[in-house]
Amino acid sequence: MWYRLLTPKWVLGHLVVAALFVATWFLGYWQLTKAEAGGGAVNWSYALQWPLYGLMGLWFYVRMARDELRRDPDADHPGNAVVLYQRPRIDTTGDPELAAYNAYLAELNERALGQRSSHGR
Questions:
Q1: Nearest alpha-carbon partner for 102 in 31, 94, 11, 69
Q2: Each residue of 81-105: b (16+ CB within 10 Å) or e?
Q3: Could you give the CA distance from residue 28 to residue 31 in angstroms, rounded to a whole number?
């Protein structure tokens, strides 16, 4: 099951997330040193925000990896039951004017599909 997180795409993601996580902590430390040197309230807020950004990113990435592990790998492959076109149903019950309008729309649809398929040949 863990092998799905070892594909090239996921390994690249692991490396990018790890690098960004470390970078946010270094940026937080840098802002903390600026704040301690008298940088002001903005530097203090950034000193707290950068590590929080790193933790949030890591949290989202762990959730994404967990969803990947729980996902059914066969769900990506369509089966034989794929319906490319289904003829619209015409409602003939109730209002006869509505039934006539639906029949007209179905006829227009059939003509449009016929023209499109004749151009494709």
A1: 94
A2: eeeeeeeeeeeeeeeeeeeeebeee
A3: 5
Contact 65, 5 (CB under 8 A): yes
Note whether 1 and 65 are within 8 A (CB): no
pLDDT bin (cut points 50, 70, 90) of residue 84 is low
At residue 120, does pLDDT exceed 60? no
> What would the pLDDT profile of 8-58 be if each residue is shown by its tens digit?
999 999 999 999 999 999 999 999 999 999 888 999 999 999 999 999 999
- Residue 106 CA to residue 89 CA, distance in Å, equals 8
pLDDT tens-digit map of 91-115: 667 788 888 888 888 888 888 877 6
Neighbour count for residue 112 (Cβ, 10 Å): 10
The DSSP symbol for 6 reads G
In one-letter notation, the amino acid at residue 119 is H
1-13 burial, b at 16+ Cβ within 10 Å, e below that, comes to eeeeeeeeeeeee
